[in-house]
User: Fold this.
Amino acid sequence: MEDRLIGTKEARRTLLTVFVLLLDEIVLVLIVLFVLWKLGIHLPLWALILLVVALGVCFFALYRLMVPILNRKQETGREGMVDLEGKVVTPLTPEGVIKVRGELWKASSTDASISTDEEVIVVGLEGLRLFVRRKNDAEQGEGVRQKDAKIIPGTGRVNHGC
Assistant:
């Protein structure tokens, strides 16, 4: 699934990102070593080797943790809105206002009217208008599958794919 070869552009970018994240720790260690050297405190060779190994382990662990996060597909825009839950602020008869993620949106109901404080699920959008249906309809398997639903431009109607 994810490309783990160091030669690929994505892997090099991820490796560089992890290195930059560790850069402040590396600089801090170098400053401490420099201050110790200036104070006349010399660390034995085994302590320096242990320090390098510890930094290497931290680098490897951070790399393994960050790769899935950095390579994760971002869900923004249209894909990020579909399937979100919201609450009706003004009745949808069939148009009104809903609240999704703390933001107010103009919305249209794909079924009958929906009253205030009912929970809804976003099934599509056109411009800045969301198209929604009741949450309990979605839980019962009624309505439209979001991935199959398409909004008919200019009408605000959902094409059920039938």
